[in-house]
Amino acid sequence: MIKKLGADLIVKDGEELLQAGGADIILHCGNSSKAANDAIKGLRPDGKFVVMGADAEPISISPMDFITKRIKVMGSQQNNREHLYEALQFVAKGKVKPMIEVFKFEDIAEAYKKVAAGKVRFRAIISMR
Hints:
Layout: H1 14-19, E1 23-28, H2 33-39, E2 43-51, H3 63-68, E3 72-75, H4 81-92, E4 100-104, H5 108-116, E5 123-127
Parallel strand pairs: 1-2, 2-3, 4-5
C-alpha cells in the first residue's frame, strides 16, 4: 500500500533510512516518542525534524547531533496558511496520491453510515455523476 501511495523507498527504522542516504526533513506525525527517537537517527546533516504528534514521554536527542549534524528540531500544529499552500503545491505537482472510496449520490446515506461508523478507509467522496 505504501508504494501505491507514491513511496520510492520503504525503510524499517532511522538507521536504515540513514544508510539509504538519509532524509532532509522528517515529519513525525505519530504519538510515540520512542518512534521519534528512532526516526531522528535518519536525518542527514542540516536535516529538520518536525514534531507534529505528541506523547507524554520526552524525545531524547544527543547534543552531539545538534553540533556534528547541525540538525534542527521544531514543532508544528500543521494549521497555518503557509503549510496549506505548500501542501497544495505538492498536490498540484501530482506528488499526492489520495486513496478514496467513491459513493454515488444516491448512496449518500450509506456513505454517511460508513463514515459515522469509522468504516471508510482514508476518504469518502460523493460523486455527482
